[in-house]
Amino acid sequence: MDFYLSEGGVRTQLPFGELDISGNEEHGYRPFQLMVSSVAGCSASVFRKILDKKKIAIDDLKISAEVERAPDEANKITDIQLHFVVKGVGLKKEQLEKSIEIARKNCSMIRTIEDSVTITETLEVINLSN
User: Fold this and answer.
1) In the chain, where the domains are located
2) Which H or E run includes 104?
């Protein structure tokens, strides 16, 4: 990946498009937003693959991320809380919890930062009627 100076930050060209990164939201995505997005996106992708392999059908998945940062340590990310909301018919919470555990073990972004950032996952299951 190559990065180039741009107005207020840096820019890179990726296969999906251009990405602007800046400490100022007026000029691009903030680095901490990209870090949290990487963790949530990786976790969601791996979770979905696991559900597909287990043949567990879901209608919707939403992940909310809360971030805690340490202002006295250059705003270092200290905690990321991921809250999974899974909607579907006949879902079993225990199966989904086990799938989240497996996803955690197989998400490269979580594995990369888990020794320096506390990552917690919570689960909410919404069973829809047929």
Assistant:
1) 4-127
2) helix 93-106
